[in-house]
Amino acid sequence: MKRRFKQVDAFTDTPFRGNPVAVVLDAEGLDSAEMQHIARWTNLSETTFLLPSKVADYRLRIFSPTRELPFAGHPTIGSAHAALEAGWVKGTKIKQECGAGILDLAVDDGVIFVRSPAVKLTPITNVASDVGMPLAPGAPLLRADVGPVWLVGEMTDAAALAAVRPDMTALAEWTTSLNATGVTVFAASGERDCAIHVRSFAPAHGIPEDPVCGSGNISVAAYLRHFKRAETSYVARQGMQLGRDGRVSMRVSAEAIELGGRAVTCVEGSLNT
Q1: What count of other Cβ atoms lies within 10 Å of the Cβ of residue 91?
Q2: List 34, 46, 191, 255, catalytic entry
Q3: Which of 19, 137, 139, 246 has CA atoms 20 to 30 A from the CA of 63?
Q4: Could you tell me if 257 and 225 are in contact, meaning their C-beta atoms sit under 8 angstroms apart?
Q5: CA atoms of 170 and 75, how far apart (whole Å)
Q6: Which residues fall within 8 angstroms of residue 213, CB to CB, at 6 or more apart?
Q7: What is the DSSP string of 100-130?
């Protein structure tokens, strides 16, 4: 059976500069094992499958190469772009059913925003010193659970962030010991068109560095809000060390965190299943 397929770059409107997600439209009839097999084959950080929903505009199932995820940021943005482009949905208001529940999405001047699931924050005192991740002096480390679980900390400045070269084996062992997906670190950008730079590492899940991480950016926004440092809206930049240049739009209030980004289709065709 031929099923429509798109590979979409999220957090950019320029092909090959964002974070790709494989999107399988017309996924009805595929079982979980088949979806997982396809996700291993695409070998991207996430592959998604669009399905009909009785409670939302569509149901989205999200798979890494090794497991199903309840929520992930760039697959949500990229899949909404694919659904709009393919005519699955129309208009500027979208409801997505996924493992994290029913999520509200909106399109604002070409930027797709999703209201994040609630983020649970807990402090971490077990800061490993041998992972090659030197935080700014006195900077706290928080565990942020938004479905994926990120250990979030702040670096001294953008240059220190760009210079980070983690010990991936030690980092994987440390994050696994804390039942975390990985580590997301950030620093003030020193640039006019964006507030912060961000990097995300998840070697325990087969992703040494995520080019542009939606859930990681949500976790950073929750961190900044927790310490009363979050702007109402700001842009984060990520992926430069991997040859990408993702731009993540964040909206932050006491009631909600919204993740936003543009997206562009890079590959379009069909899968034979």
Answers
A1: 9
A2: 46
A3: 246
A4: yes
A5: 28
A6: 19, 73, 74, 184, 198, 200, 238
A7: TEEEEEEEETTEEEEEPPP-EEEE-----SS
Angstrom distance (rounded) from CA 232 to CA 225? 10
**Mean per-residue pLDDT of the chain:** 96
* pLDDT (average), residues 245-269: 98
The yes-or-no answer on residue 46 being catalytic is yes
Burial of 243 (0-12, 13-18, 19+ CB in 10 A): exposed
- pLDDT mean over 77-96: 97
Give yes or no for residue 127 having a pLDDT over 80: no
**Rg of the chain (C-alpha set):** 18
Contacts of 196 (CB under 8 A, 6+ apart): 186, 187, 188, 189, 220, 234, 236, 237
Q: Which of 12, 9, 42, 4 is nearest to 268 (CA)?
A: 4
Q: Sorting pLDDT into bands at 50, 70 and 90, what band is 131? A: confident
For residue range 41-54, list pLDDT tens digits in order: 999 999 999 999 99
